Amino acid sequence: MADLRFARTEKMLQLAFLKLLEETPYHEISIAKLAQESLIDRTTFYAHYDNLAELAEELIRQELAPFHQALSTRQDLKQKQNFDNYSFFSQELLSHLLTDRQQITLLRELPLGSNSFDRQLRGIFTQTYAKILQVPASDFTVFLLDNLALSNLDFILKNGRAPAKKELQAALQKMEQFLN
């Protein structure tokens, strides 16, 4: 019973934090304000988290878990023939991204340095692409693919859909013309 109450309180804290982020800049959120919003006292907050950054990092970890899963699955599928390297994003993550669109957008804005959403996601992409391409993580192709994946994320969150492969191909052709 205590574990259920603990989990319920933790979920309440997370939801209250996200609600506050919708209306208050991160640097203006205090533990007292969060405790008041979640109807708990400050000592209860500290039973769950050491500080607000730890709470934010936990939410980011939860939102990044589907990326880990999808990219791990992608590496497994890469071994099979007829695997479309581009479509994994829409197939594996689109539903998650659209369901948690607002939450992900809020978490991406948090100024957490190396623990920020985008910084961690870029690391996941870098490891995956370097492994698949069998090149160093510092390879320029990996850097370009990281940025393409983050651009896909931006597009999905803004437009509510994944860009089609034909859209990507047309955009790459325009970029090639621009570079010539």
TrEMBL record:
Residues 7-67 form the HTH tetR-type domain. One of its GO terms (molecular function) is DNA binding. Residues 30-49 bind DNA. The keyword DNA-binding applies. It comes from the Bacteria. SUPFAM superfamilies: Homeodomain-like (SSF46689). InterPro entries: Homeodomain-like_sf, HTH-type_Tx_Regulator, HTH_TetR. PROSITE patterns: HTH_TETR_2. Keywords: DNA-binding. Transmembrane segments: none annotated. This is TetR family transcriptional regulator. It comes from Ligilactobacillus salitolerans. The gene is tetR.
